[in-house]
Structure formats: C-alpha cells, structure tokens
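About this split. The held-out portion is used to measure sequence recovery: a designer receives only the structure tokens and must propose an amino acid at every position. Recovery is the fraction of positions where the proposal matches the reference. Here is one held-out target exactly as it appears in the evaluation file.
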C-alpha cells in the first residue's frame, strides 16, 4: 500500500483552481486500491455541500471519503494564510501517517517553509507547480532561494501544460524533472437535466435574435473582466454578455458597466445554472490576461459544451494551449478589447465557423481534459515513483 499526503492551501468547500485540482487528485488516487491518502491544508471561511469551515478552527473531517486536516489561521498576508497550528499538525502527520509520497501544491511558500525540514530522505516529493509568483514581487524575491531548494528536492514536478514549463523562470531550470498533467473538468458536475434545459430555454427566449456571450470566474485583476466590459462598448444590443462569479473587483466592474445594457452580472451561480448558461450561450468568453491563469478550467468547461472560445494571447500560459487559435476559437492580442469585439462579431456573422470551432472545442476537451485521462496520467506518475 502506497501512502500519499497532499499538502495544499485549501480544500473543498473552499473554491479556487488549486483547491479544485487537489480535489481532482484525491478522486484520482481513490480509484486505485493500492493507495491510502490524507490531505492537510489551511482552514478558511467557506461552506457548501454540507460543510461549514471557519478560519480560526483546526479540525479533522472527511471530504469525499478522504481524511482532511484543516489548520486554523490567524491572518492572511500577501495572499498567504498564516497558521500557528499548521507546523504542529504537519509534523504529527509526517510522523504518524509517514507518507511514501508527498504531493505539494505550489504556490504556497509558507507551507513549503515547514514542509522541507519535515521531509524524510526516503519520502518522494512531487511538486505540483500551478504558477509562478508574479504579482507579489517582494514575496517572490523573499522565497526565490526556497523555491530553488524546493525544486532541487523534488523527485518530479507537475506542470499543467508544456508552454508553462518553457516560460517559467523556475521550471525551465528543471525540465528534466517536469511532467505535464493537464487539468480536468468534472463531467458529473456538468451533467445537464430537465431543469438545465428549462433555464437554458428561458435565457434563449429572453435574448431572441441576440448573440449570447458568457464568461465566469473570480472577479480579480488577472481574470481580465475590465477588458470584457470594455469590449461591450464596441458592441451594440444585438449582443448580450453575461458575467458570472464574484470577487474583490465586483463593485468596480459594475461601476465600469454602468449604462451598458448589453452586460449583465449574475453573481455566484449554482451548477445547474452554470450548465444552463453554458448550454444557452453562443460564445464562451475567457478574457484572462496574465500567467496567473495557468490553464483555465472554466475555459475547458465552456469548450466542453461545444462553444467556440475567445481568449487573449498570454505568453507562457496554458490558456492558449487549451483554446487553439483558428481551431477551437479565436485568440486576440492581449488586452485589446477592440480586437476582442471584432472576434465576437466574426463568430456571430459566420454560423458555420462558429459551429466548426465549437465541435472542435468539445472534441479537444474529450481528448485531453477529462477526469479519466487525468487519473490515468496521475496514477502513471505515482507508479513511476519507485516507493
């Protein structure tokens, strides 16, 4: 029996790209009868699926049949949660559980500072490198040496796409250790039903004769929603742009969109509402603009529904690996809202092209970004660890 410990910043019901990947990893590991697993993470205020999390509490619970230790936190500095109980809980986990393999999700330099001295020489380390630290320049400089130490200690480094390896200032130095494991979407979560079709039909009827565009994600700078709203200014009311999600920039975005009748904010939506908008829309909008968007799970979800995608060029990001320009959608110069609007107009004016890109988009997801393929790739990596 191989024992695997995931060390990650957060876990469901906390919502985010890294949290979702950690959950996907747990699902993949569960499919093997020869793996025992546990997860240690920070606690953060969140609720969903019957779980209620409170930042200051340190608790042990079961999520998706996997034991999770959530360590209470006292503060959040430069996007890093600070916990007084984490060092103790990690040390106890490493001693009692004694994992053969640790899967560490980066970026979380605070966690790495405690993990490295607690790793036995015999413990294999997989560093799951989600993205470089690009926004917090000071933080990046402070932990530069630690990052190099972490990657030197790693037995394998997982990247979510090949372009990210080449462009990363860190991964490019350790290419011999890198392996690509594409992120995946949950086909179960995206199942459509009678209620989905009902809501989708209502959306279509409400926007009869219009091109329905849909985008969803956290309202933070790198997601680029300021550019999508700017795009709406170049479009008339024959277009309707729906923006799902919420975040620190929500109020600013709404202020920016004042007076634009072709933009509507949906807030946080349920899975059934998500699938309804993905079903009803004509074009999926994914306006992220920086490498903080290392892959784009929401992008893959939109493509799965057979929708052509419009994205920006982001050097080194996996976004332009997921959406292939001229194959599954259109790629525009980074931050060029006018070009983005022209792309939406082009797809609107050419239904055959829209259908062609949409079919190719769905097939690309089915061929590369499903849970089965993800599990196969991850378990192959685990099997190669020689524990």
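Reference sequence for scoring:
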């Amino acid at each position: 029996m191989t024992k695997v410990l995931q060390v990650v910043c957060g876990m469901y019901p906390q919502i985010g790209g890294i949290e979702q990947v950690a959950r996907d990893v747990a699902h993949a590991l569960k499919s093997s009868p020869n793996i025992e697993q546990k997860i240690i993470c920070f606690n953060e205020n969140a609720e969903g699926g019957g779980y209620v999390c409170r930042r200051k509490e340190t608790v042990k619970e079961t999520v998706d049949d996997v034991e999770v230790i959530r360590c209470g936190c006292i503060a959040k500095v430069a996007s890093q949660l600070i916990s007084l109980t984490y060092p103790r809980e990690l040390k106890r986990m490493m001693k009692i559980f004694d994992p053969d393999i640790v899967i560490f999700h980066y970026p979380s330099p605070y966690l790495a500072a405690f993990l490295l001295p607690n790793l036995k020489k015999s413990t294999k380390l997989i560093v799951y490198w989600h993205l470089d630290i690009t926004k917090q320049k000071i933080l990046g400089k402070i932990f530069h040496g630690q990052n190099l130490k972490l990657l030197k200690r790693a037995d394998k480094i997982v990247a979510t796409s090949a372009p990210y390896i080449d462009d990363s200032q860190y991964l490019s130095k350790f290419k011999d250790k890198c392996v690509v494991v594409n992120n995946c979407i949950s086909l179960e979560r995206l199942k459509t039903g009678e209620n989905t079709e009902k809501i989708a039909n209502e959306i279509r009827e409400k926007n009869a004769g219009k091109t329905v565009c849909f985008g969803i994600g956290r309202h933070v700078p790198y997601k680029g929603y300021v550019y999508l709203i700017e795009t709406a200014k170049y479009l008339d009311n024959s277009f309707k742009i729906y923006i799902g999600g919420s975040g620190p920039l929500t109020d600013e975005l709404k202020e920016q969109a004042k007076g634009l009748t072709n933009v509507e904010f949906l807030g946080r939506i349920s899975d059934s509402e998500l699938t309804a908008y993905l079903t009803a829309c004509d074009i999926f909008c994914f306006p992220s603009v920086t490498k903080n968007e290392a892959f784009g799970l929401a992008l893959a979800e939109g493509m799965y529904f057979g929708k052509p995608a419009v994205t920006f060029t982001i050097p080194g990001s996996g976004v332009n690996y997921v959406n292939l320009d001229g194959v599954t959608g259109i790629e525009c110069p980074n931050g060029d809202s006018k070009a983005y609007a022209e792309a939406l107009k082009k797809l609107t004016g050419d239904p055959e092209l829209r259908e062609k890109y949409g079919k190719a988009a769905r097939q690309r997801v089915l061929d590369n970004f499903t849970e089965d393929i993800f599990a196969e790739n991850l378990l192959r990596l685990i099997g190669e660890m020689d524990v």
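Annotator remark: The chain has two domains: 2-184+370-383, 194-368.
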